[in-house]
Amino acid sequence: xxxxxxxxxxxxxxxxxxxxxxxxxxxxxxxxxxxxxxxxxxxxxxxxxxxxxxxxxxxxxxxxxxxxxxxxxxxxxxxxxxxxxxxxxxxxxxxx
Length: 96
Hints:
alpha+beta; 6-stranded antiparallel sheet; 1 helix
């Protein structure tokens, strides 16, 4: 089973949007999206896990943190020990 690498090396860069990783076998996608603000660019993580789309509250100045978090989340999801309430960041459901 292919998993998202914490280094971002197997993510696809989408100019103007950010980086995307999608599972070959499951309905799982992570998006590290790039945003602009007066203080500069920042990145956020959105996770689509089998019909649920959630976005992490929090901003990072580089995408590297979110690559690692996506790898951690995928690992927890694949072992059925995924608990968003116990994660260091807050999450919100995204309407798609």
